[in-house]
Amino acid sequence: MLATRNYGTNISDGCRTAFTNIDGKFKNGALRDFLLKPWAHDTWGRMPDFGLSQEEATQLAVFLRSLKKGGPTKVLLGNVKKGEMLVLSLGCLNCHKNPIKEFYQAPSMSSIAKAGDKGCLSEFPKTAPNFYFTTEQRAALKIFLGKGTQSLKRRSLAEFAERQVIALNCRACHPMDGAQNRLSHLPGLTSHLSVEVGDVDAEAAGRKKDPPDLTHVGEMLQTDWMARLFTGKLNYKPRPWMKMRMPAFPARGEHLAHGLAQKHGMPSGVKQPTFEASQTSVGQKLVSTNGGFGCVACHAVGDKPALAPFEGQGLNFTYSRERLNHEFYMRWMLNPQRLNPFSIMPRYADDEGQTALADALAGDAHDQFNAIWQYLANGDL
User: Fold this and answer.
1) Can you spell out the DSSP letters for 65-118?
2) pLDDT tens digits along 191-211
3) What is the CATH number of domain 279-378?
4) Average pLDDT over residues 29-40
5) What DSSP string describes 199-227?
6) 25: pLDDT confidence band, cut at 50, 70 and 90?
7) pTM exceeds 0.85, yes or no
8) 54-66 vs 80-90: helix crossing angle, rounded to 10
9) Residues of the chain with pLDDT > 70: what percent?
10) With 60 as the cut, is the pLDDT of residue 224 above it?
11) Rounded distance, CA 251 to CA 228, Å?
């Protein structure tokens, strides 16, 4: 019965949980118990406590079960009509959708602000739902409602992403914004996990046990690829040597990906550049150990393993074409340590934009790195 938020849809449609599946979700008697004490098993639940009596909870449960097509699975004792009246009068349809007419009218936000300590903002509500707000929460709501509610109509995925990074506890595993992950602050509790984390991550080699740093993730990764990763739809492990697993967040993943991109000023669906086809072969030579930068020593290419990843293994080049944003790729190639001081990725370009490979494209770092990009994007990897 917990409402599932669906950004981009109207409150009358996707933001409310349908009643029609309740009969199959709850065992006999469990729905009544849930209605009596919604937060008994989930303190973070959004379902409010209406202070129902045993009889009211029973009648409400009977009615909700009756909404299943073909009627409830089991015959329950109770009055369906009384349960329907409770659904209407308690304002259940503010959060749940159901094809019945509602005569209950919830008070406006402005009237709640004017009511002060009455209604649902009361410490002990009598007729209004009890959300068990803390003193600080009630004070914050009063201030917010007093200033108006226009911000509730603003859809900001960047703000959503900021909240989700906290709510999903991403920093427990990932370093971000110059701060180490929280696991690193608990060595006594987590040191035994080090053998399970895996080998050195080439993007965070100075923190050998850490998953990748999230500081630049919104500008580094293509939005669609992030969405697949976050929702669990990516059919491969980008870092197969790491035993630590990235969890999936199917409900939040897509919005989280777009929000992280927006935080870095990256619009969705950025078209990645391509360069002359003739540059593909040049790029292939530049990543080789034969007159190139030797990238394949640390990076695998398709089914071909890295030749000598003695300090740290890099990601397979096959994934780069769908994973990286070109703008970030170029800044990374020009000076990796500027973006990640812990990286063991060599810096090949000097401050004048030249590399030591003067015979390839006149030693111009931008041209050489674009040729590598062309190979990664269009080569036979």
Assistant:
1) HHTSTTS-SS--SS-HHHHHHHHHHHTGGGTEE-SS-----PPPHHHHHHHTTS
2) 555 544 444 343 444 334 468
3) 1.10.760.10
4) 85
5) S-BTTSTTSTTPPPP-TTHHHHB-HHHHH
6) confident
7) no
8) 100
9) 79
10) yes
11) 12
Query: 3-class secondary structure for 280-308?
Result: HHHHHHHCCCCCCCCHHHCECECCECCCC
DSSP string, 239-276: STTB-SPPPP-TTTHHHHHHHHHHHTTPPTTPPPP---
Please answer whether residues 344 and 202 qualify as being in contact, where contact means their C-beta atoms are separated by less than 8 angstroms: yes
Element (H, E) at 18: strand 17-18
- The pLDDT tens digits for 131-164 are 888 889 888 888 888 887 777 777 789 999 998 8
- Where are the domain boundaries for CATH 1.10.760.10 in the chain? 279-378
Burial class (CB in 10 A: 0-12, 13-18, 19+), 215: middle
Q: How far apart are CA 18 and CA 93, in angstroms?
A: 10
